[in-house]
Amino acid sequence: MANASPPPPPYSSSSSSAYPPRPLKSALRSRQQKPPEVLERERALLARLPAADLSREKPIRNFLATRFYKFVLLTIHLLFGIYLKLRWAYHNILNRGLSILYYHHRTPQLIRKDVKELEERGKLPEHVSVILEYERGGLDTLIDEVSEISCWCASAGIKTLSVYEQTGILKSYISTSHRSISQRLHSYFGRSRPRLRVHAPPLSSLHEPGGEGREVDLEVIFISEEDGRESLVDLTKTLCDMAQRGKIASEDVSVELIDAEVTENTISEPDLLILFSPSVVLRGYPPWQIRLTEIFHVQDNSGVGYQVFLRALHRFAKTEMRFGR
Amino acid sequence: MPSPTLHGSSRTRKWVLSSPPVEWATMKLRELLINALRQGPVPQHVAFVMDGNRRFARSNHIETVEGHNMGFEALAKALCYKAGVRVVTIYAFSIENFKRPLHEVNALMEIAKIKLSQLCQHGELMDRYGASLRILGHRSLLRQDVLEAIEQATEMTKHNDRAILNVCFPYTSRDEMTTAIRDIVSSSTIPHTSPPSPSPSDSSTSTSTSASSGRTATPGLMDIESITEKTITRHMFTSGCPPLDLLVRTSGVERLSDFMMWQCHQDTDIVFSDCLWPQFDIWKFMPILINWGVKRRKLEKERGDVEVRGVGMGMGVGRGGGY
Fold it and tell me: Confidence band (pLDDT; 50, 70, 90) for A25?
């Protein structure tokens, strides 16, 4: 905003010098008989008249004004761009520092220590969700990131982790991911590694590798864009079908009904959503489920990092839930 | 308690800021900036969660009701139609807010009634921006007198077509989605032969599709396979508005709290601001707008590069076409 403080020279000078001639000329032509002092007064007056009603017949003036505003906007964008660069640099140095200060060294005990305070206050989220990007590093990076985050969750004592990736590529690599996460858990925990279940919503109740009753320590769920709007569209279709066959009335459609269906078919409402992107854009994350979810991101951060995860947990513990009260 | 020196300095600052020359200069500066912003990409649809009125009241030792009042004034200051925004949606009252103490709910209703009629009087704010008012939400939960005030206010601004102010009055996003789905379900059971259908555009599309591919459809009923995301979007309260470009939530709470979930979960930029709503004004909003513009311009450049490579056309003149 500081850039706008210099007065607008091109515009104001052009307005005062360029615009009197034409109206004056016509005035002079039509009122030749007027005494010179009247003309003088008119001239003085014309210079002070507001530009509003003259602007219509002044295309050049309008053009110049637009040019000028464009120039101002360009300057604003330029300065803002510089500011953003500086902010980015500052935040990155800060993030680097934090990631050196807080590093897990693949030791669950260290992670436990980092979240101990939160656990004592009972402020640890049960269900954490993350948004990852496939385009940034390809499949290998993606699975690697999933494994890392799973280990952090397991160490911190978070029971459910849902991983949102827009394209849904992870859903076709469930067994690969399961293997990768298991290996990583082994390198963190050694022999007594936590029990793990990896699955994706459409298959959830049908194909469970370990069987229904098995208790797990960490549940990893892969979700994608199709679990958002598309699942709601499918639900609408099902409900329409039932209504057409007279099984339900439209009045039966309630928030509770939809919530039950959505929770059963996809995921429940997460407590905390962690973004590893520099700003908050949800990229098609399931809309029904983000009602009261705490959305965390680190400004100007890009990339998965333990310090982001930890800061998210701390931030979550500090906030009070108010439920509209 | 503020120290006397602090108090004094803030008073002198206020005095300086309200002195005619400074006021004139800030006004000119604001005009200049707004005119400049118009030249670039501007979000067409902006949503606000007006959060922090009560906290502001508490920290400034004023009545809660007064805090809400000031919040309403902040809204008037933050309305950004002049910068080229066409639709502003605000979260005024959540269905969950009915859980608040009764006297506060009643006071809020009174404020709403007064402000609605104030806003919409001839020559007042809404008229000046050429904006029409729409109330979104579960209206049947409201009292009769409030409903009447709403009716009157919408009626008075109906003729304005340059901009729209959506006020989400007793609203939650889940309720909105449920209502949309319920509407679709109920319209799917109405046979086509009966002419009145809730939304004319929808019934026409469904007839045409069911006529072309009538295999799954029960004769005379809506073809279920024709239901898409677009159908649901059309049944949202915001149907007809451009897609939501920017969502701003004040007071540092980083949650959507059941607001515009269907509309904002794709490409919308969501910004969480730390200031409380009564303190939010054009100077707080300007950086957000500029940031959005910078980002959008970068995005357009990337997209433009692809287009130029594909079509071989020149400079990015096509701004405003897509958005």
Answer: low
The alpha carbon of B267 is separated from its chain's Cα centroid by a whole number of angstroms, namely 16
On whether residue A270 sits in a domain, the answer given is yes
Whether the CB of A108 is below 8 Å from some CB of chain B: the reply is: no
Distance CA B25, CA B287 (A): 19
Q: Which of residues 275-314 of A touch B (CB under 8 A)?
A: 279-288, 290-296
Identify any residues that bridge with B89 across adjacent strands, giving them in sequence order: B47, B166
Instruction: Please tell me the distance from the alpha carbon of residue B162 to that of residue B126, in angstroms, as a whole number.
Output: 10
A311 in a structural domain: yes
At which residue do the structure tokens 């599309």 appear? B205
In a domain, A103, yes or no: no
Q: Do A185 and A146 share a domain, yes or no?
A: yes
Residue B184 has pLDDT above 70, yes or no: yes
Based on the fold, state whether residues A181 and A213 are members of the same structural domain: yes
Contact between A84 and B188 using a beta-carbon 8 Å cutoff: no
- State ipTM: 0.81
Cβ atoms within 10 Å of A253's Cβ, excluding its own: 24
Within the 73-112 window of chain B, which residues sit less than 8 Å (CB to CB) from chain A?
Answer: 94, 96-97, 99-100
Is the predicted pLDDT of residue B190 greater than 80, yes or no?
yes
Instruction: Render pLDDT for A199-256 as a digit per residue (tens, 0 to 9).
Output: 898 655 444 454 445 678 999 999 999 999 999 999 999 999 999 998 999 899 999 9
Please check whether residues A193 and A312 belong to one and the same domain: yes
